[in-house]
């Protein structure tokens, strides 16, 4: 009888110990999640208030044999106070898609809205935004890589600090909330000084490393907003790569919502 | 064509070529275009021996625009010229666009000149899209349109977009000839064209369009009062002085007046695009008022990243209903599959089949396109009519299956 009581007591203590250990682990987890979110939020807050911006883009696609093809387009973005950005992209090259324009409303919580203007038919077409993981213009960038990065689109976890070439980075993991995302997780290197992303590793749904994006040639605009001029995406699984080169950044053009409608899309060219 | 409009167009052309000095400092028009070669082969002999078995054509498209007043005003043009070396019925010169657009301080948008206006959401038939005459000789799919002279007023409001149109002047259809494919059983005699409206093709048509986006819904409603873009054909004997021999039976095009309302609706849900277009109207024909109704409704679902690749496969179906006697889309079902490889060459293909649910006539269409490089692209089209019933309007063109190759050079 005593023996039994002792055994029960012992096992109770053991259970408590296990619970305690798990709690310690959970707290660490919570802290990592909170720190990850705090870093992402700080990066987002530092970019608040840019208002609107336009820029030119050149996209260079390279296959594994090094053969290149080029695209060029113009981008206009309008910040929304309590939602994702509105963006309008107009294509100039290749010539067969010249004048084609793409309008998107990014939303924090609900599905994004997207329209395409097809100049040959003078037709505006609403398209499904569920194609997050699909390639943008045949490049290594997926739609979800170039759309407005909203806090709510991921859950976060702080991993570690890392120093590369005397620059200190936070390394955080972010997991896409949307089950239609092509990624299981992303690792993002954010510098501790200015909270700019310098590198992102993208992991596919099977948890294998799929792509790496390196962002470089950062410039500060209006004494506040940092923009990388070069986005180099390398696909580890296919050997293909795409380089996005931005130029002619102009902030505060006085854009309004009426410049981002299906009507303005028709004359965007 | 209406004289006043010709004057406007001439005036605008002058402005384009020799801009007033006040604007000359901003004068830096954006001009581009493309040259297209197209070859068609018809494997079956035509129903009439004089119908062509092969044809090839060259077309040139030029477009450009110039903005003024900080983008509040624009002059734009888009012209097409086509020469077919085997079937001159396909020759065309059309000013698709030549307009002046102006946005007032209180955001009212005025457009004067030739424009192409697209309304609607469906893929296999464009019921509500009524403003422009279709370029039947370019392709039987009615995707290509001819420029329509107009004056329009648009207001963009929080409750939606509202645009009113006065359509000045009317373009009749481009008719096929005896040697053309896709021709009716009897030759069309353009000199016998008649209009119900007293002022013939000078008649002014009116239209109103409302459109709005609410969450997943793209909503459109339209009203049109004017000349039917599709003529009725009346069989009669050719008088002296016609292209056809006097006394032989020919078709005289007759353009009636109609009044029509239309709605178009698209719901963009997580996996499906749901589409609907419906029209109801009244057409005056041979002293009678004929009521008509038509509908296209269907859906489209895209499978992303098929077979572990980056390619997409879109599947679509659309049901077509029409109670007018002169259309073959009376009770038909269209199904299709669209493949996009999402590669650098933007290779894509569309396979579609339409079946008449009453007489089982079938129409099969295959389209593919591929970019060769920055300035060259190619496309191909195969169209097959099978199981064609004598009850179906396509019976007259049952031997007109074709294979087409198109080469484009952009500049």
What features would you describe in this structure?
- The complex is a heterodimer of chains A (269) and B (411).
- With 269 residues, chain A is α+β, with helices and mostly antiparallel strands.
- Chain A has one domain (45-266): outer membrane lipoprotein receptor (LolB), chain A (Clam), CATH 2.50.20.
- Chain A is built from three helices and 13 strands.
- Chain A has helices at 2-46, 143-146, 262-266, and strands at residues 52-62, 68-80, 83-93, 101-105, 113-118, 123-127, 154-164, 167-176, 183-191, 197-204, 209-221, 225-235, 241-251.
- Chain A has a 13-stranded antiparallel sheet.
- Chain A is globular and about 55 Å long.
- Chain B is mostly beta strands.
- Chain B has a single domain, classed as Porin, CATH 2.40.160.
- Chain B is 5% helix and 53% strand.
- Chain B has helices at 3-17, 21-24, and strands at 30-41, 54-68, 73-84, 92-103, 108-115, 148-157, 160-168, 194-195, 204-214, 217-227, 232-237, 249-255, 257-268, 272-285, 288-303, 312-322, 331-340, 348-356, 362-371, 376-386, 402-410.
- In chain B, the strands form two sheets. Chain B has an 18-stranded antiparallel barrel. Chain B has a three-stranded mixed sheet with strand order 8-12-11, with no helix packed on it.
- The model of chain B has no long low-confidence stretch (mean pLDDT 91).
- The interface between A and B is large, with 36 and 44 residues.
């Amino acid at each position: 009888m005593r023996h039994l009581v002792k055994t029960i007591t012992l096992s109770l203590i053991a259970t408590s110990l296990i619970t305690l250990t798990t709690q310690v682990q959970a707290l660490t987890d919570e802290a990592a999640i909170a720190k990850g979110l705090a870093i992402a939020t700080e990066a987002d807050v530092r970019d608040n208030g840019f208002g609107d911006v336009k820029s030119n883009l050149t996209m260079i696609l390279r296959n594994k044999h090094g053969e290149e093809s080029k695209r060029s387009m113009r981008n206009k973005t309008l910040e929304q106070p309590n939602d994702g950005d509105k963006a309008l992209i107009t294509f100039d090259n290749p010539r067969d898609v010249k004048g084609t324009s793409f309008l998107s409303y990014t939303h924090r919580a609900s599905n994004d809205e997207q329209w395409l203007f097809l100049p040959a038919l003078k037709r505006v077409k609403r398209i499904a935004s569920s194609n997050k993981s699909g390639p943008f213009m045949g490049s290594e960038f997926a739609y979800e890589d170039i759309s407005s990065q909203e806090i709510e689109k991921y859950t976060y976890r702080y991993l570690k600090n890392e120093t590369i070439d005397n620059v200190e980075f936070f390394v955080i993991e972010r997991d896409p909330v949307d089950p239609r995302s092509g990624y299981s997780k992303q690792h993002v290197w954010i510098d501790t000084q200015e909270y700019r992303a310098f590198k992102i590793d993208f992991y596919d749904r099977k948890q294998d490393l799929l792509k790496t994006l390196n962002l470089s040639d950062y410039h500060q605009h209006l004494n506040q907003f940092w923009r990388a001029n070069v986005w180099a995406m390398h696909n580890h699984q296919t050997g293909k790569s795409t380089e996005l080169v931005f130029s002619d950044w102009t902030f505060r053009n006085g854009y309004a919502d009426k410049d981002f409608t299906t009507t303005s899309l028709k004359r965007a060219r | 064509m209406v004289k006043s409009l010709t004057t406007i167009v001439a005036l605008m052309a002058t402005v384009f070529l020799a801009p007033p000095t006040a604007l000359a400092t901003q004068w830096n028009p954006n001009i581009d275009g493309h040259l297209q070669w197209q070859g068609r082969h018809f494997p079956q002999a035509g129903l009439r021996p004089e119908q062509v078995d092969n044809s090839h054509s060259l077309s040139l498209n030029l477009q450009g625009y110039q903005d003024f007043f900080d983008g509040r005003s624009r002059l734009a043009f888009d012209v097409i010229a086509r020469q077919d070396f085997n079937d001159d019925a396909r020759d065309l010169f059309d000013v698709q666009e030549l307009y002046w657009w102006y946005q007032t301080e209180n955001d009212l948008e005025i457009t004067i000149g030739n424009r192409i206006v697209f309304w609607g959401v469906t893929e296999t038939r464009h019921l509500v899209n009524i403003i422009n005459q279709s370029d039947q000789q370019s392709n039987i799919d009615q995707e290509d349109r001819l420029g329509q002279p107009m004056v329009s007023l648009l207001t963009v409001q929080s409750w939606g977009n509202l645009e009113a149109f006065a359509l000045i002047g009317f373009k009749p259809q481009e008719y096929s000839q005896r040697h053309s494919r896709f021709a009716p059983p009897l030759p069309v005699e353009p000199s016998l064209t008649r209009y119900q409206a007293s002022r013939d093709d000078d008649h002014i048509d009116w239209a109103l369009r409302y459109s709005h986006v609410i969450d997943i819904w793209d909503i459109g409603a339209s009203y049109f009062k004017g000349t039917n873009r599709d003529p009725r054909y009346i069989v009669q004997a050719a008088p002296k002085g016609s292209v056809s021999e006097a006394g032989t039976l020919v078709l005289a095009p007759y353009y009636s007046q109609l009044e029509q309302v239309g709605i178009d609706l698209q719901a963009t849900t997580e996996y499906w695009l749901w589409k609907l277009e419906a029209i109801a109207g009244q057409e005056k024909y041979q002293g009678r008022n004929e009521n008509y109704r038509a509908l296209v409704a269907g859906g489209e679902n895209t499978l992303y990243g098929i077979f572990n690749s980056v390619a997409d496969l879109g599947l679509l179906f659309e049901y077509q209903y029409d109670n007018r006697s002169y259309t073959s889309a009376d009770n038909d079902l269209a199904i299709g599959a669209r493949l996009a490889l999402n590669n650098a060459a933007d290779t894509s293909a569309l396979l579609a089949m339409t079946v008449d649910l009453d007489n089982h006539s079938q129409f099969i269409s295959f389209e593919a396109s591929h970019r060769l490089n920055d300035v060259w692209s190619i496309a191909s089209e195969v169209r097959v009519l099978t199981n064609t019933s004598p009850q179906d309007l396509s019976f007259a063109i049952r031997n007109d299956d074709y294979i087409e190759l198109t080469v484009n050079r952009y500049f």
